[in-house]
Design a protein that fits this description.
The protein is an alpha+beta fold. The protein contains four helices and seven strands; from the N terminus they run ααββαβββββα. A hairpin with a 2-residue loop joins strand 5 and strand 6.
Amino acid sequence: MRNLVLLFSAVVLLACVMQKKSAKYMEREKSEVAATLVKFWQAYERKNLAAMSGMLTASSDFTFFGSDAAEVTRSRHDWEYLMQKDWQLFETTKFGEPRNLAIQISDDRNLASAVYEVQDVSLIEGKNVESLDRFAITMRKENGDWRIVQGMTAVATVGESSAEIMTRRKIKAPKN
């Protein structure tokens, strides 16, 4: 009986240690994903196509949606063309820190999903234009590095939520 209790205690202790290591490892992976996202958008600010392209998957299953319905890319070449067109729109752009960042990592630690938003200020035709950009990114671990496999961007509206639209409709509705 004493040996059974000792064995059970050892198993429980080992499980606790392994769980702590696993949680620590997962937090480190999430930090690496977040750091990759920041590097990606810093390269965008610098209009550094080579640095951004180097963070994309090497495989052929790449997909990225831009903020316009026509911006659907399924190859590195098409994505690079999209970035070059983007950069013609503004003189400079600066992103804030990611906020509302949510990262999920698969149990096998080879796939990560991140959603987040950033404020951005772009200099367009001599005027500062502010926007709130939202991103959904899927990454895969390739040769020890997180690489972007899928992405989607949207420019968030202000004052156009369904609740705000419905409130305006109710105010405009004729009263009987």
